């Protein structure tokens, strides 16, 4: 029997959480065979209502502000491990894919998807009207799939797929 | 003159705007202010009410809306054709709200201001009603699902 499909949405803080909640509802309404779960930062407003929580790079960056550069690599590795752990648990029962929303989760989510061998899409923030974020530029260099919500000169020159605005 | 002003600070702290509104509420006692904030750093007063959440459906009940330049709120206000003043939250680690602020300013989609430009005359003056219909492209869920599972 084919496994059910599960989309894990890894969200940043603030508006990204709001977008993630909208996306989760849209995906769950899309089909009864499709499930969606949220992975939020432990420091985020939605953390208590989220399906999974991770201690993210931005959460720890605030705590370890003075040692940010030194802490970045181990924190990134910790984020990847936390996401991988969730994916491996879910892979036993579901056909899993990852969507990242917001700059913080994009890189660790992409690395985790490569380790776990699952599909990954990063959706650029709806606030990025005339440019794309540094995280997504990095992802593009790593040949990841990046969708943008607004069409502009930069996204056109990079031939990025325009997915429309989450609302 | 505006009788009621709604201030939206979003999901991340924006103490500079809250403090500015607190000062302005003292200077303009005839205006009723409602400040939405998740972690307010000011206290309520006779004409300043604090709320942690306000439904989008009640936005139209206010004469003027002053909002952080967050995408969710700004796009909602634009699609509803409601007049507002957008103020970028530069307290955030990532100052991406500046991009949306510049876009609104350049295209004259709404009034914009930096914190230091938010003064009593801007609050008292009736806002200009936008004379255009703003449409956002629909989110293509099918494209996302196909990319993830096909």
Mean pLDDT of chain A: 86
Radius of gyration of chain A: 15 Å
Q: What distance lies between the first and last C-alpha atoms of chain B, to the nearest angstrom?
A: 57 Å
Task: State the major sheet of chain A.
Answer: 7 strands, parallel
Tell me the overall shape of chain B: globular
Instruction: Tell me the structural class of chain B.
Output: alpha/beta
Principal-axes shape call of chain A: globular
- Number of helical segments of chain B? 5
Number of DSSP helical runs of chain A: 6
Order of helices and strands of chain A: EHEEHHEHEHEHE
Major β-sheet annotation of chain B: 6 strands, parallel
Structure description:
The complex is a heterodimer of chains A (about 170) and B (about 150). Chain A is built from six helices and seven strands. Chain A is α/β, with parallel strands linked by helices and about 170 residues long. Chain A has a seven-stranded parallel sheet with strand order 3-2-1-4-5-6-7, with helices on both faces. Chain A is globular and about 45 Å long. The relative contact order of chain A is 0.15. Chain B has a single domain (about 5-150), classed as Glycogen Phosphorylase B (Rossmann fold, 3-Layer(aba) Sandwich). Helices cover about 30% and strands about 15% of the residues of chain B. Chain B has helices at about 15-25, 70-80, 95-105, 120-125, 140-150; strands at about 5-10, 30-35, 50, 65-70, 85, 110. A six-stranded parallel sheet of chain B has the order 3-2-1-4-5-6, with helices on both faces. Chain B starts with a strand and ends with a helix. The mean pLDDT of chain B is about 90. The interface between A and B is large, with 43 and 31 residues.
């Amino acid at each position: 029997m084919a496994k059910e499909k599960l989309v894990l949405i890894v969200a940043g803080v603030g508006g990204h959480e709001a977008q993630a909640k909208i996306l989760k509802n849209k995906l769950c309404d899309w089909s009864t065979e499709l499930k969606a779960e949220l992975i939020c930062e432990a420091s985020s407003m939605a953390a208590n209502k989220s399906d999974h929580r991770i201690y993210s790079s931005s959460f720890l960056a605030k705590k370890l502000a003075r040692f940010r550069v030194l802490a970045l690599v181990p924190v990134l590795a910790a984020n990847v491990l936390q996401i991988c752990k969730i994916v491996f648990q879910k892979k036993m029962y579901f056909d899993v894919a990852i969507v990242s929303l917001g700059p913080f989760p994009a890189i660790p989510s992409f690395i985790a998807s490569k380790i776990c061998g699952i599909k990954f899409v990063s959706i650029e923030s709806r606030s990025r009207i005339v440019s794309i974020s540094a995280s997504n530029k990095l992802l593009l260099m790593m040949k990841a799939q990046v969708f943008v919500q607004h069409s502009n000169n930069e996204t056109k020159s990079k031939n990025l797929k325009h997915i429309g605005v989450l609302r | 003159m505006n009788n009621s002003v709604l201030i939206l600070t979003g999901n991340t702290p924006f103490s500079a705007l809250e403090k500015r509104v607190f000062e302005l509420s003292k200077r303009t006692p005839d205006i009723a202010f409602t400040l939405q904030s998740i972690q307010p750093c000011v206290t309520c007063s006779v004409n300043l009410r604090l709320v942690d959440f306000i439904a989008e459906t009640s936005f139209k009940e206010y004469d003027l809306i002053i909002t952080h330049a967050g995408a969710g709120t700004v796009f909602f206000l634009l699609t509803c054709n409601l007049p507002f003043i957008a103020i970028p939250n530069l307290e955030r680690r990532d100052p991406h709200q500046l991009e949306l602020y510049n876009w609104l300013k350049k295209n004259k989609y709404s009034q914009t201001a930096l914190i230091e430009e938010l003064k009593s005359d801007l609050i008292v003056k009736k806002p200009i009603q936008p004379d255009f219909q703003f449409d956002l492209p629909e989110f293509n869920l099918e494209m996302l699902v196909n990319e993830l599972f096909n």
